[in-house]
Design brief:
The chain is an alpha+beta fold and 435 residues long. 58% of the residues lie in helices and 17% in strands. It has 13 helices and 13 strands. The strands form four sheets. Strands 3-4-2-12 form a four-stranded antiparallel beta sheet. Strand 7 and strand 8 form a beta hairpin.
Length: 435
């Protein structure tokens, strides 16, 4: 059993440290990054009163909702769309390749009209059910396929029936997109907009049409590009802070708890890899507040181990238990405290996530996930590795687990804590572990 435990211990430690050293950096940089890390575009929109529509709170809320639909359809990483004051909306677009195209897409009022030759508007965007970009298989043109609602299909059929041999105009925000000649009535409730130069342009138009028309006119009053130099500077500082924070914690645990601290460090490496891997699998977007959350949870990840090791000292030195018994009791006694403290942190993270916006939610995600994983690694990985170490009998001297010094310095206090002042407490140096 001793040999088997030793082999398992060595394999586990080597595997965890190896995966950490080889995989942590590539894994960290494979996670999607937000505006503050990779750069992007910052846009400020301002609503304007017109004769047709006035700016009010309901209209601005609808503007934000429509902007969210448009920006999310662009496939950007963790965009931020939020109101500022009574008339403004702030939009941050991380990693956009073509800022001008993105701004053009999100800024369109998107008033779609179908007019006959007399200029009468027969259909509008309200009659539209869906819009999808495609490439016409016959002529290779980039088009937008429209599908109308039931009521819209009736209007479109009536429009084409009455205008056979004539042209109808399809306009967006007052500009003619196309003016096809009607050869025969179209009854299927579907139409096609052609004239888009590229498929991407057709896709952007489809996004605008699907999201609906803005209730009020909006103007772009500020456009600011966050350059790659700021993003790279942020990355470098974040990476340095992460390395320093992790290194200090690793050294602290080894200095104070020796072999137990080393096992806690190995568990911390496993925790770091699991956290980054989970963020990658969840397709999360990492921002500077998110990095701060990760660094914060590094310290929190060893809190549970500290509680466990302190209880282990008490169990070994006061109760005279064996190393194996003391370690098992230490985990059991610390569990309630660990559970309560982590639950309160998770509750705080949940409140930040559901009530916060943008990068605050990113911080909440890393804090919540990190807290859950820290509790998991403390009560599973750390415990398993420590049991293997004790069973392998690498070190039977309690000093190797940080216990002896504590015993000698606080001998009298421990007598009182034991509740047995008349019974001598076994000196850790002289005592031997029970078998």
């Amino acid at each position: 059993m001793r040999k088997d435990s030793l082999i398992k211990l060595i394999v586990c430690i080597v595997a965890i440290i190896g995966i950490f050293l080889v995989g942590v950096r590539p894994l960290a940089f494979s996670i999607r990054q937000g505006l503050d890390l990779q750069g992007g575009t910052h846009v400020v929109l301002e609503a304007e009163d017109t004769d047709v529509a006035k700016v009010n709170d309901d209209a601005m809320n609808r503007v934000v909702t429509i902007m969210e639909k448009r920006v999310n359809s662009l496939g950007l990483t963790e965009p931020i769309i939020q109101r500022e004051g009574e008339r403004r909306v702030i939009i941050e677009l991380p990693g956009v390749k073509d800022p001008d195209a993105a701004i053009k897409t999100i800024g369109k009022t998107a008033v779609l009209e179908f007019k006959d030759e007399e200029g009468n508007t027969v259909l509008t965007g309200e009659d539209l059910k869906d819009a999808q970009a495609a490439t016409n298989q016959q002529n290779g043109q980039n088009v937008v396929n429209l599908e109308f609602t039931d009521e819209g299909a009736k209007k479109f059929a009536d429009l084409t029936t009455k205008n056979v041999g004539r042209t109808i105009a399809i306009l967006l925000d007052g500009e003619t997109l196309t003016a096809p000649n009607v050869r025969e009535p179209i009854l299927g409730g579907k139409a096609e907009i052609s004239g888009q130069k590229t498929l991407e342009e057709a896709q952007n138009l489809a996004i605008v049409l699907r999201s609906g028309a803005l209730p009020v006119k909006v103007n772009i009053i500020e456009t600011r590009t966050v350059g790659p130099s700021l993003g790279q500077d942020s990355k470098d500082k974040s990476e340095f802070a992460f390395a320093v924070g992790l290194g200090v914690v690793l050294l602290f645990m080894v200095a104070f708890y020796r072999l137990s601290g080393f096992i806690a460090d190995v568990a911390l490496m496993a925790y770091t890899v699991m956290l980054l891997g989970l963020l990658y699998l969840l397709d999360a977007t990492l921002t500077l507040p998110g990095v701060a959350g990760i660094i914060l949870t590094i310290g929190m990840a060893v809190d549970a181990n500290v509680l466990i090791f302190e209880h282990f000292k008490e169990e070994y030195q006061i109760q005279g238990k064996t190393l194996r018994q003391a370690m098992s009791s230490g985990f059991k006694r610390a569990f309630t405290t660990i559970f309560d403290s982590n639950v309160t942190t998770i509750i705080a993270a949940a409140v930040l996530f559901f009530l916060g916006t943008g990068t605050i939610r990113g911080f909440a995600i890393t804090l919540g996930l990190g807290t859950l994983l820290s509790m998991f690694t403390a009560i599973t990985v750390s415990q398993y590795l420590l049991k293997l170490m004790i069973n392998s009998k690498i070190a039977e001297n309690p000093a190797a687990y940080g216990a002896t010094g504590y015993m000698l310095w606080h001998k009298e206090d421990l007598k009182t804590m034991s509740g047995q002042p008349d019974k001598p407490v076994k000196d850790a140096k002289a005592g031997k572990e029970g078998k």
